[in-house]
Please model this.
Amino acid sequence: MCVSSSPWLFFLITCVCIGLHLSCSNGFQYYDRTSCDSDTNNPGTRYTCGKNSSRNTCRTFFVYRSNHRFRTILSISSLFAVDPQTLLTINRHVSFPTQLLRPGHEIVVPIQCSCSMRNFSHANFTYEVSERENTTLTTVSCDVFEGLVKSITLYEVNVFSASVIVVPLKCACPNDDDVKNGVEYLVTYPFVERDDTRKVGEKFNVSVEEIWEANHMDPTPTVYPNTTILVPLKNEPFLNLDFLDSVDPPIPTFLPTNPFEKNTRKIARIKKIYIVGSVVVFSLVVALLVACVLYVKTLNNFKNRNVLRSSSTPLSMNSCLSPVLRAELKYSLCMYSVEDLKSGTENFDSVTSDNVYKGKIDGCDVMIKRMRFEEVKKVIDIHSKINHVNIVKLEGVCYDFSSAYLVYELPLNGSLRECLLSSNYALSWRKRTKIAFDIANGLHYLHYSVIPSYSHDSSVSTENIFLTSDWRAKIAVFGNRAGPISERVDVFSFGVVLLELVSGKGSVDGSVMREYSLDALCLVVLGGSCVDVDPLRRPSMDDVIKILARMV
Model:
C-alpha cells in the first residue's frame, strides 16, 4: 500500500485518536525552562486554553514575593488591584496591611483568569511607567512581576513607547477532566534560586507527581529561577511557610541583682569543671579533624582506583583523557583506558556499523563510538545539556594516539532495527505505540528543552534507537549535529521510523494492513503526514507528541 499524505489526513488522525483516547486527564501545559528575558517562544511561554474545558474563565491564584519595591500587603494589593483585606484573609500569616515583609516573603494573590482570542489564558493587568524611571519591558516582566510573564510576551502586546504597559500574567483554568479528578485551581508559581518541585509540593501539601503531570515534566526535573509552573489544588491555597516574618527585637531588660557572699570552695569546683570541660571539647575537636582528614584521603584513594583507573605510570594518551580536555568536562564521566575497551570488545571485534562497537565493561553492556579528536569536545558539550529518560546516556570517554572513543550505555533489547527484523521478538501494537511516543518525546525534548535546540537530521533511524528491558525507547545522540537543520527535517526522519515501526521493514507494502488495529491505522496516517514532500505541511514535534500522548 502506497501511503500519501495531505492536511486532511493529519486532521483525520487527530480526530480519530482524540476520540479513541478521551480519558487523558490533564490539559497539555508545558514547563518553559528558558529565562524570563529570553526572546524565544516555547511551549509553556504562555499557557493555552483547555480544549476539553466547558469554562473560559475561572478564579485562580498566583504566588508573588515581597521585594524592595513592594514590601507590604498594601503596596502589593495596589500593584494587582486587589482589596488589601482580601489579601489579609488569604495570607493569614500577615497581621496588617502596612506590616513590613521580609524580602522573598510569599504572598498568595487571587486573580480572574480568562481565555483570549489567540487561545491563550491570562489575567490582564496594567503597569504605569514613570517618566523618571529608566524602565524596560524586560525589567517589568522579570523584576516587577518576577517572571509571571516573559518579556517576549510584553514586547508582542505592547508599544514600547507607551507609558501604560499591558501585562498578561500567565494563568490556567482546570479542564473538565481535571475537575472530575477534584482539581479546582491551577496556581501559578514562580521559581527562585535553590527551589525545586518537591519543595513546592511541601508548601502546598500536594504530591510532586501531580505537579509533574500538570506541567508535562519528567521525574525529578531541573528547574530555573524566574520560570513558572502550575500547582494543581483541590482547595484554595494555603502556604506552609517554614520561616517567620522578621519583627523588631524586644528591648533588653535587666533582672534585679541580689548581694551574695563569696564561696571559695564553690568557685574552685566551678573552675575545675570549666577546665575539664575545655579539655574534653578540645579533644573532641582534634579527633573530629583527624577523622575528616582520614575520610578525605580514603575518598580520594577510592576515586583514583575506581573512577580514574590510574596506574603507577604517569598519565598518557593510552590511559585516558588529557588534563586539558579533562578540565573542560562539564559533568562527571568515567575515563577508560584503551586496554579496558579492548578487553570489553574482544579487541574491537564486535563492530556493528558507523564505527560503533558493542561490548561489556565492569559487567555492564556498552556501545563504543569511535570518532576524531576534534569531535569529542562537541559531543561532550551536547550531552552536558541533556538529561532525559528517552536519550541514551553517555557513560565515559577515552582516546588513543590516532582516535578517540565515547562509551554509551547499551539498553538490554538492542536497537529497534534488530528487534523489528528478528523473529524472537513479538511487538504488540501497544508496545509499538509506546515506542513511537518515547521517540517523539525524546525528539521533542531535544527541540524544545535543550538550548540551543538540537537537530538530528539523518541520524534519526531505527539503527540509532534502542530498547530497554521494559521496551522503553531511547535515542542515541552520537553528535553529528546538522547546524541550522529545521525541525521539519527531523519530523520527516521520524515519519520514516514510524512507518518502519508499523511495517516491520524499510517500506510499506500491500500486506501491511493485515490484522492491523485502529491504533495501527493512526500510526500509518501520522507517519504519512510526517513524510509529506512539502515541509510546511508536516506537523511539528509538538503536534506529534500531543497526538501520541492520547494514544498511549
